[in-house]
TrEMBL record:
Keywords for this protein: Hydrolase, Metal-binding, Signal
Lineage: Bacteria, Pseudomonadati, Verrucomicrobiota, Opitutia, Puniceicoccales
Gene3D superfamilies cross-referenced by the UniProt entry: Glycosidases (3.20.20.80)
Domain of life: Bacteria
CDD domains with a match to the protein in the record: AmyAc_bac_CMD_like_2
Pfam families on file: Alpha-amylase (PF00128)
Source species of the chain: Rubellicoccus peritrichatus
GO terms assigned for molecular function: hydrolase activity; metal ion binding
UniProt-recorded name of the protein: Alpha-amylase family glycosyl hydrolase
Signal keyword on record: yes
Required cofactor(s): Ca(2+)
Amino acid sequence: MKTALCPRTHLLFCFFYITTLFTSQVYGEWFFRGTPNNWDATQMTMLDANNYEIIQEFNGEEGNARFKIDRNGDWAESYPSQDYIIEDFKTYRINFNTISKEITVREFNDKWYFRGTPNAWNTAEMTHVGGDTYEYTATFNGQESPARFLIDHFGDFSERYPATDFHVTDFKTYKITFNAATKAITADEVWTPDTWYFRGTPNAWNTAEMTRVSANTYEYVATFNGEESPARFLIDHFGDFSERYPAVNDQLVTDDRIYKITFNSDTKAITTEEIGVIEPWYFRGTPNNWNTAAMTHTGNGFYEYTATFNGEESPARFLIDRYGDFSERYPIPDYEVTDNKTYRIIFDVVTKDITVTELGATSGDFREETIYFVMTTRFYDGDSANNMKCWDGSLNPNTDPAWRGDFKGLIEKLDYIKALGFSAIWITPVVKNASGYDYHGYHAIDHTKVDFRYESPGVTYQTLIDEVHARGMKIIQDIVLNHSCNFGEENLYPMFTRSETISFNEDPDVAMTINDVMGVLPNDYLTLVPNAQFGARIDAMKEDFNDTEFIYHHEKSLQWEGYTVQTAQIAGDTVDLNTENPTTAQYLIDAYNGFIDMGVDAFRVDTVKHISRLSFNNYYLPAFKARGGSDFFIFGEIASRYRQVWNSGIPAISTPFYTWAETQSYPWGTRVENEASTFQHWQDNDTVDNEPTSNNHLLFGNDYHAPDHSLNSGMAQIDFPMHWNFQYANDAFNVALGGDQWYNDATYNVTYVDSHDYAPDGAPENQRFAQPQDSWAENLSLMFTFRGIPCLYYGSEIEFKKGHVIDVGPNAPLENTGRAYFGSHIEGSINVTDFGEYSNVTGEMANTLNHPLAQHIRRLNLIRRAIPALQKGQYSTEGVSGSMAFKRRFTDGSTDSFALIAVSSGATFNGIPNGTYVDAITGDVQNVGGGSLTANVNGKGNLKVYVLNGPGKIGVDGTYLKP
């Protein structure tokens, strides 16, 4: 604690303080102040009477890395007189002697790892807490018996402590402390607070974890809005109704109210405090001539209204009116906004806060972006109250339910993604799902609604979209047009009327409307086990309905390389939608146009090869482009796991095929016509003999030319051929060189190494990329400089779950797969000023961002953003020697960007324009007068990017990008 010098009321203490000040000076407090902590005062650790210590990371926060040691943190006495300057981007152990004022600086790079049963014996870096002490907190949950661990120095078991494992009691949490000098290990049990759940009509009786506010007090805020009558709830201890309060009858409350519910775990007393009323609230302002417009209640006391201000009155302004008579209004005075804009206005009925977000369609060339891909439920948990287990996910422990990450967590870590330099985020599907293992989002039961398990009070999908845009970033929504969940799509049963009922001889009292049966079965995510007659009747009704309208495909024989790949189910829990049926198509178009209206910037389309290109070109692509604008980016997934561009020589299931518009007319209108035409279309494209080619990706010599997109379908593709060859960068590069002519424009391809589904060919058991780290670096160096839009699957920046099988369904805990929870690696805070530019990073996030690959990616993003040729340029290898070397150029009315790129090894570029070329990696300058330049590259994954009249060196040297 810092003590003020000589307060009048503490004279005796002052005498003691002054006496020691002029003798040993051991009681003074000393602080580190420098570039890493923005010159704030950070208290140093007292080692003994005369020595203090701190460990600090310097990460380029200012131009020169430097610091001072400051007594009392007030600049009254600091050392040295001039700042202590050191080399940046390193970690140091800094010692200060209070007698001699000597400062000793030693580079610090020691790390110790926890390995044990909780983390499957993988390496988890311990936290250095000062001196020789390291800490780690681990929860043992019966992963392996007996529960035990060890401390590993180098991550290879060559130096480990103790020699035999350290045993602890299972199903407990421990703070583990390790002394690197004495090798002493202590494990102190950490008390874990009990868990209590709210269950009631507002959340369909699912479990919502209450917030612990004291040793025995828990709270939850719930909005009762007519979901079920009467409005009621209970408090559940274990989430299984085995211990619940009240013990028998539910706790009744008044509907259309917001309550703060408090529970005492000792006395079991429940109290309810009304904190808001759900009633009409009105928007009134200049756009509607101050008339009343009812706002939409979006849940938990939040109301929403979208208004466009078009100069009706100056200044543009509005208010929120409770009764429509101005007797209670917020705010006073009016809320002013900028005119000629559209805003989303959110009102909190409890706090009376008003949030205003500007809306507007984004545009631009998506090749200017780079993409970070997350599985939302596995990324970061911002709200544990919406965590849920899947009914087929019994192997996942309660501490890691499959539904774990959420929109709130993703919002909290958007700045982390921006710090890496990524400008676009691809998220897995957000729509309402229902299946035994649906955490991934690809099993829709309702394409029009957002699944509530992603959302939190005050945090909706719209909130996420707005937060992404507020950071100058774009959001890509993953959509599935091909199939629904194994229950079907709950909005595609329109034939039965509410008056029609069914009854059963076994139980004459059972009578249900067809709508009830079709709706209730999946709506509440229940597993119902009806009697045999009930089940048979439901199945028969579904079949009768399907035979009537053909909403679904009913092909029973799936040929992976035949036409039925587009008309049969690809899995038992994915009912195939008849995407040729006009009714089905219009429903899907309307559903996803709604998300475009919310501000989504792009679609990634799942399972594209299972839908005819004719359906895309006649239905879906024109509709989405009409709604989102010509720049609305759409790219698809053609899972053609094949080493060459053509999948088994069949264009209709190959990646380039879907980038082309139709050149032949086919009958189109009714379901029967459409189905016949898609079959004919398949037969007309069963060989590569008549497939078109393009030079839209190629330079003409050294010259950029305007691409011809007249036959572009409007849908780019994930570059599956490159992905499948990315075990080695050279293979991926060569398949592109040989196959890019078949795409309408390969510069729009989205490129990645691995994903949530697949690793490159050659990886045993389809593991997350498991080659050495320099192979990762080499792949990334190629991806970020070659044609296409780079995409990174979450965690690859630290080789997260390297070598783990990506997806085994519910047959192993998610923690042991490539879809593990990433949140523990990004705990902490950060200040981000621009893409790839940040400071003041704390916690485990700092370690993650300091990983060699993370820094490599960050710098590649900085380089790509600064050089238009690397974003949108055409390329050529003409006159270029070298195994992975090429030239790129992009030219428009205001830009002419020309770059020479060599990856991992040297290259010579002949026949290039004369001029001054500057390397973005080293800043090296070469003045070319004879049309030739030689680039010398030192090391796998390293680069040279010589730019004609270039900006110079971009970023700082790292493990892979360096002289």
